[in-house]
């Protein structure tokens, strides 16, 4: 599949691995893909992120991703569903951190053994890569670019999609920023 990726999309995937290494994460996640996309300059996705105002709010995006990690990676929908049955995730996080230390649910990497091997991609990150292929095919594009990765991040449920939506970047708004109103809805592949 990677032979169909543009140079920019490959750089995004490589950058995601670098983000995972810096965070001492055991695997590459959707979060790392999002952060790597935000690093890219001069691409269609960077244009869309700028149009939507995310380029100027990187600190806010990183803080929202950090808060989700602190909740053990639960999405807002997960948190709301649990609240609906009487489970207060904020209270659980506070109690767990009170006993085991701050950030324990975020998978703090400080005490884990470091290795220099290849990091696997999580199922969610693989899902983003697969979805980007379906988005590109749905748009009848020959190659997978960063814009397809960004659209896939907005379309696949999870923390990255939640954070993007919180910041005004939904599938529809990203598609409008990328392609204008004329092609809206043309290719949201499922």
Describe the structure in your own words.
- The protein is mostly helical.
- It is 58% helix and 0% strand.
- The chain contains 10 helices and no strands.
- Helix 3 packs across helix 8.
Low-confidence stretches: 108-115, 183-190
Q: What is the annotated CATH architecture?
A: Orthogonal Bundle
Query: Can you identify the CATH class?
Result: Mainly Alpha
Main sheet record: none
Q: If helices are DSSP runs of H or I spanning 4 or more residues, what is the number of helices?
A: 10
Beginning-to-end CA distance, first to last residue:
18 Å
What best-fitting shape do the alpha-carbon axes yield? globular
CATH topology: Double Clp-N motif
Identify the CATH homologous superfamily: Clp, N-terminal domain
Q: What structural class should be given to the helix and strand makeup?
A: mainly alpha
Quickly count the domains.
1
Query: Percentage of helical residues?
Result: 55-70%
């Amino acid at each position: 599949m990677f032979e169909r990726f543009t140079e920019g999309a490959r750089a995004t995937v490589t950058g995601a691995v670098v983000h995972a290494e810096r965070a001492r994460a055991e695997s590459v996640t959707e979060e790392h893909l999002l952060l790597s996309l935000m690093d890219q300059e001069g691409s269609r996705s960077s244009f869309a992120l700028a149009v939507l105002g995310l380029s100027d709010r990187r600190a806010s995006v990183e803080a929202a991703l950090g808060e989700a990690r602190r909740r053990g990676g639960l999405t807002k929908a997960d948190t709301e569903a649990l609240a609906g049955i009487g489970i207060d995730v904020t209270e659980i996080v506070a109690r767990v951190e009170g006993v085991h230390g701050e950030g324990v649910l975020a998978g703090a990497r400080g005490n884990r053994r470091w290795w220099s091997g290849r990091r696997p991609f999580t199922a969610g990150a693989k899902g983003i890569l697969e979805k980007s292929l379906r988005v590109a095919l749905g748009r009848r594009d020959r190659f997978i670019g960063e814009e397809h990765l960004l659209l896939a991040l907005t379309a696949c449920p999870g923390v990255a999609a939640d954070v993007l939506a919180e910041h005004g970047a939904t599938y529809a708004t990203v598609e409008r920023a990328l392609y204008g109103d004329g092609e809206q809805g043309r290719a949201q592949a499922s």
